[in-house]
UniProtKB/TrEMBL annotation:
FAD dependent oxidoreductase central domain ranges (all copies): 370-425
Annotated family: Belongs to the GcvT family.
Domain GCVT N-terminal: 427-704
UniProt name for this protein: FAD-dependent oxidoreductase
Residues covered by the FAD dependent oxidoreductase domain: 12-367
Residue span(s) of domain Aminomethyltransferase C-terminal: 724-808
Domain of life: Bacteria
Organism: Nocardioides zhouii
InterPro entries: FAD-dep_OxRdtase (IPR006076), FAD/NAD-bd_sf (IPR036188), FAO_M (IPR032503), GcvT/YgfZ/DmdA (IPR028896), GcvT/YgfZ_C (IPR029043), GcvT_C (IPR013977), GCVT_N (IPR006222), TrmE/GcvT-like (IPR027266)
Residue ranges of coiled coil: none
Length: 816
């Protein structure tokens, strides 16, 4: 396999001979794409794969990543029959231990959400846990969560089996070929340079593991990864040790345990790990092993001796430390680079590469062949990456936190604490003085809620009502009943200019943006399959100037999407001006009463209608005021030159008390927008969803002279109808809470999952947007017709469904 000569060209070049690279090659070959070359700098498996512990666990953090593991399980079940080479997979199950009441509550919620993927899971009491794993010490044990279909296998054997299956179908696998550069032209990848020569390619896949960051940099693609020291210990043989016991994972003890060849392996996801080779992975022959560090690891091993007492008398045969790459947000990178066509990345798997790799390669192969992902995975999209995330010092701080938190309880609304503050709004200081408790998104410090005087400014995490619940409710009611002010400066802003700007934007947009100057248009941008690539507002500020507003986490991918659709003969420029403008959303039924005395502009409904945008005087300066809303009330978004932002804040604050003005955070903004069923890209909608399914058909202008990207595919959807829709839900139990991914049932049958949720303080219950799948193409009314239940922490709670917003369904309030 490894002695073949480098060809001059191939349809696909895969860089990296670990489990993910070989899986991609194998699945491409199974799809009939055999003009594929896999390049490995050393030998197959020599990067991270060779020292993988081999666990296959389905308890991933999102719906999409669980679907990837489901694909992996199918590979483990069928690969040996296809290739004749074993994966070593054995179904043993996994037991996640609950050693505290909080951990048990987390497991109840985890059990519910994974059922949404059809995963078999049971919550066990202590006695049943000990029956399945008699080596455990029951002290402090509250029970466990059992995944009977989980297992373990050999990472090396699986990789070799995948490579053999690929090679049998014609894939060329070349070892000892180091990629030294990535060739590009016209915004597309065109090939790679190696120590064996150059090779042209239509597609290049970066499956380089720890080297993925450096390989991405060769292509001008930012792939934030950092290798960390990662440990496990293998004991000497233990007499009479039972075989194929369930894998034990104990989050509160930061460890997992599995039996292996008559011994026990204890692996660690412990706090206090450290970066390795942050200035670049050294040139080696692979199979990197780092020095032992018993001073660091000993305390965690001792805790596991208490949980598994048989370890106390077992000698240690192997103390292993090997580097693995982690990402800033703990989520891997899988998909096409936003700024380089046909350059795909599959890297940064945060020590779950073995269990995710076979499925990730399957997804990537389908994506390349079909032109779209078969699994909805906005959380792994490279477009989420921010420039600062590849900074070495940022990575060293933030990525360590990814490992530190891996086995901690995963709380709702949990905030990262490292590498902060970094990006600060011009209004950071006054919002802080007003009591802001900050969260972070895309590096931006954002006021999530405001603590009144005398209330400590910190999060107390809970699966029940958190400590900020009542304070956010007060902010929510201020917007519904009087007026609130939200610092939305972190939102992305693109200035699009030039003779052909209107043609470019109109070609991309489903709505018609060729409006009169001073109008804002809400629209989606689609791909050729009618999937929603972006959800934006576009303001025409001059005949040849437009302002595109996007979310903080999506601005980079939206900018890249827009730029790649500008043709070579078109005069159109795009500039990201996000940091140069502050933005305040002044929202609520008294918004006009607050603003009118502060400006000479006429803010009446007749002279400043909904959808209008114009520059007005305010205080001692000028701002762009746009009458629009993301919270469902009368209001204006104020775009303010950064240097004047503090002045505008002070002017509004000084005028605010008679109108009940309240500063409002992002938790309240989220609960407000969900009551109005306003969509959020990456949470409720993504490239896997079309506007008809998403309830956004009202934005589509079918008869635009220019048409729009994705029109033909969307017309097909319109003519055929849909069998899934995004539906708004309200729980009937006013005390129950929702977060995301909870399964939705209809007449006892699993029909969907919650996409996003928060407590709706005006509606009086937890409100959610969720995807519902019908058994066939059905009329619109079907989705509202039957009673629903949503499973929350193991309990099914009745829920009311609606395709129209439950709050102000006719949208009269924003237009008042």
């Amino acid at each position: 396999m490894g002695t073949q000569q480098l060809p001059g060209r191939a349809q696909v070049v895969i860089v990296g001979g670990g489990i993910i690279g070989t899986s991609t090659a194998y699945h491409l070959a199974r799809r009939g794409w055999t003009d594929v070359v896999l390049l490995e700098r050393n030998t197959l498996t020599s990067g991270t794969t060779w020292h993988a512990a081999g666990l296959v666990t389905q308890a991933r953090g999102s719906w999409g990543t669980r679907e990837v593991v489901q694909r992996s399980l199918e590979v483990f079940r069928t690969l040996e029959e296809d290739t004749g080479f074993s994966t070593g997979f054995v179904k043993t199950g996994t037991i996640n231990l609950a050693t505290s009441a909080d951990r048990l509550e987390e497991m109840k919620h985890l059990a519910s959400v994974v059922r949404g993927n059809g995963i078999d899971v049971q919550l066990l009491d202590t006695d049943r846990t000990l029956e399945l794993h008699p080596l455990l010490n029951p002290d402090g044990l509250h029970g466990s969560l059992h995944f009977p279909e989980d297992g373990r296998g050999s990472a090396t054997d699986t990789t070799i089996s995948l490579a053999r299956g690929a090679a049998q179908r014609g894939v060329r696998i070349i070892e000892g070929a180091v990629v030294t550069d990535v060739q590009t032209a016209g915004g597309r990848v065109t090939g790679v340079s190696t120590t064996m020569g150059d090779i042209e390619a239509e597609y290049v896949v970066n499956a380089g593991g720890m080297w993925g960051r450096e390989l991405g940099a060769m292509a001008g693609v930012e792939v934030p990864l950092q290798a960390l020291a990662h440990y496990y210990v293998v004991t000497e043989a233990i007499p009479d040790l039972p075989r194929n016991l369930p894998t034990v994972k104990s989050g509160d003890e930061y460890s997992y345990v599995k039996d292996e060849a008559g011994a026990l392996m204890v692996g660690f996801f412990e706090p206090g790990s450290y970066p390795w080779a942050s200035r670049g992975i050294p040139v080696t022959d692979g199979y990197i092993q780092l020095p032992e560090d018993w001073d660091h690891l000993g305390q965690f091993y001792e805790k596991m001796i208490e949980r598994v007492p048989i370890l106390a008398d077992a000698g240690i045969r192997l103390h292993f430390c090997g580097p693995e790459s982690f990402t800033p947000d703990g989520q891997y990178h899988l998909g096409e680079a936003p700024n380089l066509r046909n350059f795909f990345v599959a890297a940064g798997f945060n020590s779950v590469g073995f269990l995710s790799g076979p499925g990730a390669g399957s997804v990537l192969a389908d994506w390349i062949v079909d032109g779209r992902s078969p699994v909805d995975l906005p959380e792994t999209d490279l477009g989420r990456v921010q420039r600062h995330e590849t900074n070495r010092r940022f990575l060293e701080k933030r990525v360590v936190e990814s490992l530190d938190l891996a086995y901690e309880i995963h709380w709702p609304f949990q905030q990262r604490s490292s590498a902060r503050p970094l990006r600060m709004s011009p209004l950071y200081e006054p919002t802080s003085q007003a009591g802001a408790v900050f969260g972070e998104l895309a590096g931006w410090e954002r006021a999530n809620w405001y603590a009144p005087a005398g209330i400590e400014r910190r999060y107390e995490y809970s699966f029940d009502r958190p400590n900020w619940f009542d304070h956010s409710a007060r902010e929510h009611r201020a917007v519904r009943e009087s007026v609130g002010m939200i610092d939305t400066s972190s939102f992305g802003k693109l200035l699009v200019q030039g003779r052909d700007a209107v043609h470019v934007l109109n070609r991309l947009s489903v709505n018609n943006v060729d409006t009169s100057v001073g109008r804002i248009t809400y629209t989606q941008w689609l791909n050729e399959h009618a999937g929603i690539e972006a959800d934006v507002t576009i303001t025409r500020i001059a005949d040849d100037q437009f302002l595109v507003l996007s979310g903080p986490a999506t601005i980079n991918r939206d900018c890249a999407h827009l730029r790649r659709h500008i043709r070579g003969d078109e005069y159109c420029t795009v500039a990201d001006i996000s940091g140069s403008l502050a933005m305040l959303a002044v929202m609520g039924p008294l918004a006009r009463d607050l603003l009118a005395p502060l400006t000479d502009a006429d803010l009446s409904n007749e002279n400043f209608p909904f959808g209008a945008s114009r520059e007005i005087d305010l205080g001692l300066t000028y701002v762009r005021a746009t009458r629009v809303t993301y919270v469902g009330e009368l209001g204006w978004e104020l775009l303010i030159p950064a240097e004047s932002a503090r002045h505008i804040w002070d002017v509004l604050q000084d005028a605010g008390p008679p109108h009940g003005l309240s500063p409002v955070g992002y938790h309240a903004m989220n609960s407000l927008r969900l009551e109005k069923a306003y969509r959020s890209w990456g949470h409720d909608i993504s490239a896997a969803d079309n506007p008809t399914e998403a309830g956004l058909s009202f934005t589509v202008k079918w008869d635009k002279p220019s048409g729009f990207v994705g029109r033909e595919a969307l017309l097909k959807v319109k003519s055929e109808g849909v069998d899934r829709r995004l539906v708004q839900f309200l729980l009937e139990d006013t005390n129950a809470l929702l977060f995301h991914d909870e399964p939705i049932y209809r007449e006892g049958h699993l029909v969907g999952r919650v996409a996003s949720a928060q407590y709706g303080h005006a509606l009086g219950g937890a409100v959610a947007l969720g995807w519902v799948q019908a058994p066939e193409i059905v009329p619109r009314g079907w989705f509202e017709a039957q009673p629903y239940e949503i499973e929350v922490g193991g309990r099914r709670v009745p829920a009311r469904a609606s395709l129209s917003p439950m709050y102000d369904p006719k949208s009269e309030r924003p237009k008042s």
